[in-house]
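Exam revision sheet. Question 4 asks you to relate a sequence to its structure. Input first:
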Amino acid sequence: MKVSIIGVGWLGEQIADYLLKSKIEILGTTRKTDKAQRLINKGINAVQLDLSSPQLAKNIWTEIAQSDWIIFTIPPSSFGNTYAAHYIRFFEQLQQFVVEGTIIFASSTSVYGNETRIVDEDSKLNPESENAKQIVKVEDFIQNNFDRYSIWRMGGLVGPKRHPVNYLIGRSGISKPKAPVNLVHSVDIINLFEQFIFNEFNYPILNLCSPEHPTKEEYYTRVAKQLNKSLPIFDAQDQQLGKTVQSKYLKQAAFQYIYPSPFDYPQAQENE
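Answer key, structure tokens:
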């Protein structure tokens, strides 16, 4: 088995580390020379790639196209309103080769917008931010141009050295205290990928969020206390809610989350 990871960043490297433990061959891309060397030292066939100018040797394009799984984890924050154009240019070059594997695209639940409703994979998209609109364009291109793909719409990412509470500590006037949180731990993203490659999961679109959704105020206040940090202060007058993200397909598949509740995340160890 061979896996290509386009964008070995915070999430991509965690997936790569899991694959290395499983003795799976990996090709990974990164923009930085020093990081490419570090990945090579780990045992990854790392190559430099800037998505805005995807210049790769023919043999590398062939390797990517012939991979069993091609994982795309580059976030829209890297490129703003040119994100979709860069991705589409990459895909068009990739299409010059015979793509044999399955594409996995790391998408976001932001594509559903922020209105108060329960959403699942069949819900109407309502992208509001520019990043979300760019992501939808990439999703559309994948669905219209590739036969084998899986789009993973992930909630807010939590994991080693990354937790959204860090952006709220000590702040005041934080909006939507009663809104549900839609988060997913990187361990469960890897858990899902393991089910895909070893248990033949086959879903073209999946939502990936811990199935429990405490309110923002309840959750972030408790986490800040656990970390002995300044408590975030919420705007008590703001009674807006927001979306609750569910996955009917993971429920049908009886997917077992390692962290079904955000309260299960090992926050303290991860934010030291």
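Marking note for examiners. The radius of gyration is 19 Å.
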